[in-house]
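Subject: Sanity check before I submit

Could someone independently write out the structure tokens for this chain? I want to compare against mine line by line before I put it in a report. The sequence has 119 residues.
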Amino acid sequence: MLGQRLRLLRHERKLTQEALGKILGVGKTAISQYEKGTRKPDADMLKRMAEFFNVSADFLLGLTDKKIPLLREQDPNYFPCAPSEEDEMLSQLPDEARQSLRDFKEYIFYKYGQKKTGR
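---
Independent answer below. Compare away.
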């Protein structure tokens, strides 16, 4: 499944195996082997793939068909307490509701003495 997903994502970005290999720090042969299923990426490589294509590792591995983008702390929709299955529900909330969740999270960190970094 990983190979099919990797090829699909690579084609969506109109990248050659060689170009993707350079981006991910491996050779064209490694990308070819990942796509054919004759080689499995290690955890670090899986993370780099997910980050580059902005999808979850679960999507790459075929555990879900939902192409949910990765949320990072810099993203205003980032909510680390939400389980991944709730990410799609959160993304469909209006901006005001997501802002309320972020505000509440900040309040909880403040109330219990934990300072959130990066803000």
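---
OP: Matches mine. For the report I'm noting this point. The chain has two domains: 2-61, 71-119.
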